[in-house]
Design goal:
Elements: H1 7-11, E1 32-33, E2 45-46, E3 52-57, E4 64-66, E5 76-77, E6 79-80, E7 85-89, E8 97-101, E9 103-105, E10 108-110, E11 117-120, E12 123-130, E13 147-155, E14 160-168, E15 182-186, H2 195-198, H3 202-211, E16 219-223, H4 241-258, E17 268-273, H5 275-286, E18 293-297, H6 304-307, E19 315-321, H7 326-338, E20 343-348, H8 355-369
Parallel strand pairs: 15-16, 15-17, 17-18, 18-19, 19-20
Antiparallel strand pairs: 1-2, 2-3, 3-7, 4-5, 4-9, 6-7, 8-12, 9-10, 11-12, 13-14, 14-16
Length: 373
């Protein structure tokens, strides 16, 4: 089995990206609570320029730092007032979309009591949402909604039952005979099977596209990629064998037996973000008879050389943020096209290795993944 040096690929996952394209240094005082706050909590707040502001009550603390944003090499340092309340604003605007962050109080790491928690960086982190100019495509709208349900499937290879989440499109439960293609969609390093629904809003992206008539409906299956046991410095030694067994030999047969799928290679796709893209790359090359459509979202590239002796995929989709390595993506896809492959590239403008890149990527991928148009 091939090994990959993934350290550089994932470095940017833990770096908050910022934009300096402001014409002046004036911060607009139109701050509002983040949409990712816990109910009734006023902070953290964000403004129309993309700045984030924090307020933490810690009267006995000597220092409070927020891992998100600028303000020195270690993030945003907060300032204490006479009442023991710490406040601070990022020194620059953040990229649009979702970001993980945490507080460091006197050297200890804590979550922000005002924010909801999301699993990332191998722990439950606080989350903040910087409003995006294109957020309408993943907004909660008055349209028919699909269902995201938890399943527990037997896994003899790991001597336990494992968890996955399955998105079924609107109308699935009202029908009795219609069968659907399936996308197996993987999270990134340090995340889990909740990421694509909670941070990525994959279900809302699908609901909205289906309501607009832009997507032939399909099922999405999201499971834990067996990656978090690998420490960051050990990513170069990552091997996909164990997860490949869980996915191909255990999860797929369970899904085909319990959901109305079109259970063949032509109607089965695999994709993933970051580490999930690396898993997708390896497994699709190892098991081309299982999947016909491949998607790497900030997760590497394919080359004609590694595909030439394999079953030809129906679609290859490769994406990245414009602050990652977009030329590598577009050049790779051009080479694949020249070699006769149906390959599509997408670059998310103004984003890096972060969920806004991957939300946009899924939005671009879904309409063409199983399209009959």
């Amino acid at each position: 089995m091939k090994k990959y040096n993934l350290t550089l690929v994932f470095f940017w996952m833990f770096s908050s990206s910022v934009c300096y394209a402001q014409m002046d240094n004036t911060i607009k005082e139109d701050f509002k609570p983040s949409s990712k706050n816990q109910p009734g909590k006023e902070y953290p707040q964000v403004n129309s320029q993309g700045y984030a502001r924090f307020k933490v009550e810690a009267p006995a603390a000597q220092s409070v730092n927020v891992s998100l944003g600028l303000g020195g090499k270690g993030g945003t340092n907060l300032t204490k007032d006479i009442d023991g309340v710490w406040t601070g604003t990022t020194a620059g605007p953040m990229d649009e979309g979702f970001h993980y962050y945490h507080l460091t109080i006197d050297g200890g790491v804590f979550n922000d009591p005002g924010a909801k928690n999301y699993y990332g960086s191998t722990r439950w982190e606080s989350g903040i949402e910087i409003p995006a100019h294109d957020e309408d495509f993943y907004a909660l709208k008055n349209v028919p909604h699909g269902n995201v349900q938890q399943i527990l499937f037997p896994s003899p290879s790991t001597s336990t039952s494992r968890r996955a989440f399955v998105y079924t499109p609107p109308g699935y439960n009202k029908e009795s005979s219609k069968r659907y293609p399936v996308l197996y969609l993987q999270h990134g390093w340090g995340e889990d099977e909740t990421a694509w629904s909670n941070q990525g809003h994959a279900n809302l992206i699908m609901d909205n596209l289906i309501a607009e008539g832009k997507v032939d409906p399909f099922i999405i299956v999201m499971t834990y990629g067996m990656t978090n046991e690998v420490k960051f410095g050990g990513l170069r030694d990552f091997k996909v064998d164990a997860f490949q067994t869980v996915l191909v030999d255990e999860l797929i047969p369970y899904v085909d037996a319990n959901f109305r799928t079109v259970a063949d290679q032509e109607h089965r796709a695999m994709g993933g973000l970051s580490m999930g893209g690396m898993e997708t790359h390896s497994i699709t090359l190892n098991k081309p008879e299982v999947f016909s459509r491949y998607a790497l979202l900030s997760g590497g590239i394919y080359t004609p050389e590694e595909l030439k002796d394999s079953i030809k995929p129906d679609l290859i989709f490769i994406s990245a943020g414009s602050k990652e390595n977009p030329d590598r993506v577009t050049n790779a896809v051009n080479v694949l096209k020249d070699a006769g492959y149906n390959a599509v590239s997408y670059v998310s403008e103004g984003t890096a290795h972060e969920f806004q890149t991957w939300r946009r990527s899924l939005h671009e991928l879904a309409p063409i993944l199983f399209s009959s148009k």
